[in-house]
Write a structure and sequence with these properties.
The complex is a heterodimer of chains A (about 250) and B (about 110). Helices cover about 30% and strands about 15% of the residues of chain A. Chain A is built from ten helices and eight strands. Chain A has helices spanning about 50-60, 95, 120-130, 150-155, 170, 175-180, 185-195, 205-210, 225-230, 235-245; strands at about 5, 15-25, 35-40, 80, 85, 100-105, 110-115, 115. In chain A, the strands form two sheets. A six-stranded mixed beta sheet of chain A has the order 1-3-2-6-4-5. Chain A has a two-stranded antiparallel sheet with strand order 7-8. In chain A, helix 3 packs parallel to helix 7, helix 7 runs antiparallel to helix 8 and helix 7 packs across helix 10 (about 235-245). Chain A is elongated. Chain B is mainly α and about 110 residues long. Chain B has one domain (about 5-110): Up-down Bundle (3 helical TM bundles of succinate and fumarate reductases). Helices cover about 85% and strands about 0% of the residues of chain B. Chain B is built from five helices and no strands. The termini of chain B are far apart. Classes of the chains: A alpha/beta (about 250), B mainly alpha (about 110). At the A-B interface, loops of A face helix 1 and helix 4 of B.
């Protein structure tokens, strides 16, 4: 079922309009997803999320979308926009250079409804790789108040600490599409983040977790995870560096 | 066996196979290509022990690498405890079977039983 609606009130002279195609799917009673079309006005700074929220406000409040911070920090509004995984709040309509903007739920995630997907698998694998510093001693037991690092030591992992767990890398990963047990680029990049941290002493236990038949070795280095990351993290590189530890090229 | 150990073997067998197959191809170039495939010349290769050992090594390297590659592809296609066990043991059996059959051919020819 396709629906065409338009909004014209409050239109300024700089406003243009696009057709926003939203994928609608409710697994409880739909067999397959369908697109609904809306004509939406936009300014050059309007984001895809704002356009979706306009649709919710003026045309169809039942469109399901997850969002929170609206500033690419919370990682809630990941979706496929014109065929590519992106954050809706971080994607301006004017940058897409298209009169039709298609939004779909992220690939490789089960759909809750419309654009909202389940994150259980991502959080489970993230938790599995022990995303915290592992040490025998603690600040409380030690005379030192802080575990100091040189700028070079920080450089080793800081890029990977920018991950916001939005799931775009997992959505873009071709292995995630076929291997339902694959750890995924998000968790592997985070495994590298902690393994490369000079304060961490849990390398062996962490490497053991990912040294599995559905672990790090199933990455084929397609590199799509790095292309879609909105925070500039390079999971593909992290995975290769992590393999260096596994193969004994790094300590 | 840990997956990293299996993958080290996988990469190692690939590199070694490339080197030995290159030697094998170079050896074929010592005479005309069609001449090298003549019955007597092929038998002579098998009867020359160092060359027979190299053929045996190529057989082992390619079987190990190939069947592990097949295992990886099949594990990515479908998941499940029983399925994965069947794939792993099936590929191992296939690898052993192919090496045994190929070795039998090399040994029998080397000993003049063919």
């Amino acid at each position: 079922m396709a629906q065409v609606s338009s909004m014209s009130d409050g239109q300024s002279s700089t406003m243009k309009s696009i057709t926003l195609k939203i994928s609608r799917f409710n697994p409880e009673h739909d067999e397959s997803s369908q697109f609904m079309e809306f004509n939406v006005n936009y300014e050059k700074w309007t984001t895809v999320l704002e356009a979706i929220l306009d649709v919710k406000k003026h045309f169809d409040h039942s469109v399901a979308v997850r969002y929170s911070c609206r500033q690419a920090t919370c990682g809630s509004c990941g979706m496929i926009i014109n065929g590519k995984p992106r954050l809706a709040c971080f994607t301006k309509i004017s940058e897409l250079d298209s009169n039709v903007v298609t939004v779909e739920p992220m690939n490789n995630f089960p759909v809750i409804r419309d654009l909202a997907v389940k994150f259980e698998r991502l959080f489970d694998t993230h938790q599995k790789i022990k995303p915290y510093l592992i040490r025998d001693d603690t600040e409380l037991e030690s005379d030192q108040k802080e575990f100091l690092q040189t700028p070079e030591e920080v450089e080793q992992y800081i890029q990977f600490a920018n991950c916001i767990k939005c799931g775009l890398c997992n959505s873009a990963c071709p292995t995630m599409a076929t291997d339902s047990s694959f750890v995924g680029p998000q968790a592997l990049a985070q495994a590298y983040r902690y393994v490369a941290d000079s304060r961490d002493k849990g390398k062996d236990s962490r490497l053991k977790v990912i040294d599995d038949s559905h672990g790090i070795w199933r990455c084929h280095f397609a590199g799509s995870c790095s292309q879609v990351c909105p925070k500039g993290v390079d999971p593909a590189m992290g995975i290769q560096l992590l393999r260096g530890y596994m193969l004994g090229f790094r300590d | 066996m840990r997956e990293s150990t299996i993958m080290k073997v996988h990469y190692g067998t690939a590199l070694a196979a490339v080197a030995l197959v290159a030697v094998h191809i170079l050896m074929r170039l010592t005479m005309g290509y069609s001449e090298s495939l003549e019955y007597e010349n092929v038998l002579a290769n098998y009867k020359f022990v160092p060359y027979a050992i190299m053929l045996e090594l190529i057989l082992i390297l390619l079987s190990v690498h190939g069947f592990n590659g097949l295992r990886v592809i099949l594990l990515e296609l479908k998941q499940g405890k029983m399925y994965e066990k069947a794939v792993s043991y099936g590929c191992l059996a296939g690898m052993i079977g192919l090496i045994a059959y190929g070795s039998r051919t090399i040994i029998m020819t080397n000993m003049g039983m063919v």
